[in-house]
Amino acid sequence: MTTVRVIGVPTDYGQDRRGVDMGPSAIRYAGLADGLADAGVEVEDAGDLLVPRAEERDPDYRSPSQGNAKFLRETEEVCTRLADEVADTIDDGELPLVLGGDHSVAIGTLGGSARDAEVGAIWFDAHGDYNTPTTSPSGNVHGMPMAAVLGYQEWADVGWANAPGLREENVVYVGLRSLDDVEREAIRDSEMTAYTMSDIDERGITEVVEAALSVASDGVDSVHVSLDLDWLDPGIAPGVGTPVRGGVTYREAHYAMERVCEADVLRSMEVVEVNPVLDDHNETAELATELVASAFGKRIL
Predict the structure, then answer these.
(1) At 158, is the secondary structure helix, strand, or coil?
(2) Which helix (H) or strand (E) segment is 6 a member of?
(3) Among 72, 101, 213, 248, which residue's beta carbon has the most beta carbons within 10 A?
(4) Residues placed in the known binding site
(5) Where, in this chain's numbering, is Mn(2+) bound (predicted)?
């Protein structure tokens, strides 16, 4: 039986809208442990990493080489510890499930997951997260984790942020619909595979997810899945910091997670950007819990 180790990372360093640091608590409160038990896995909750409050730190403390990236020192501290925790979890024969927090935590999750193995990654997200400290319009690191782990441009010299076992050709975006101009060109010029919401509209979620799994798992040991709740339409997932209309439906999201489970390639997973302050009766956290359960094997029959 699979043992899932839950690791909470209550950060909100990566974005401007406060409240996402309460995401891990909201997801647990929504019944995560019961959902995973119903999926047939054992659950070990490692609690939350200690994360200093943003109010106690200076968001502008950085060197000139760090561009306008906010809270980069704090992000390094948290993600370095998270990478060790994820790597230790895998070494113990368990599967790490990281609860964010903002999407900058993916730097730590992938850093640990791809430390001693070749991995692919499927990025279920409305956004590309492929900015750098100098290209980001906002300076928010939650818009940079994919660039960071792949060592893109100035991230190449930021060793703590790079995931050595992850290659561009095994990275797949699913459901993109909001990209910055510079980021759009960078993704086009990369070896990553990107499926937009238009691709899902045209080809259907079944074909897109099958293709994503094929690309991400080609020639690697296993696959990391990153699930940003703003991937879903804000009509069903209102409690996120950067909602974008036109996301996937409830059933499309469940199907995608069910196929992830059936493919039996999952090495690590994170669920991020749940913001209870913006939510409606914890609806988005409950949906996150349901989707995680589907990713680990819960079925209708």
Answers:
(1) coil
(2) strand 3-9
(3) 101
(4) 103, 125, 127, 129, 228, 230
(5) 103, 125, 127, 129, 228, 230
Q: What are the extents of the domains in the chain?
A: 3-295
Fold of the CATH domain 3-295: Arginase; Chain A (3.40.800)
* Strand 166-176 versus strand 193-196 pairing type: parallel
Q: For residue range 96-154, what is the model confidence (pLDDT) as tens digits?
A: 999 999 999 999 999 999 999 999 999 999 999 999 988 888 888 999 999 999 999 99
Residue 104: left if φ>0, alpha if ψ -120 to 50, beta else—which one? alpha
Given a contact cutoff of 8 angstroms between Cβ atoms, the answer to whether 166 and 110 are in contact is: yes
Q: What's the CA gap between 74 and 129, in Å, rounded?
A: 19
What letter represents residue 119's amino acid? V
- Residues belonging to the binding site for Mn(2+) are 103, 125, 127, 129, 228, 230
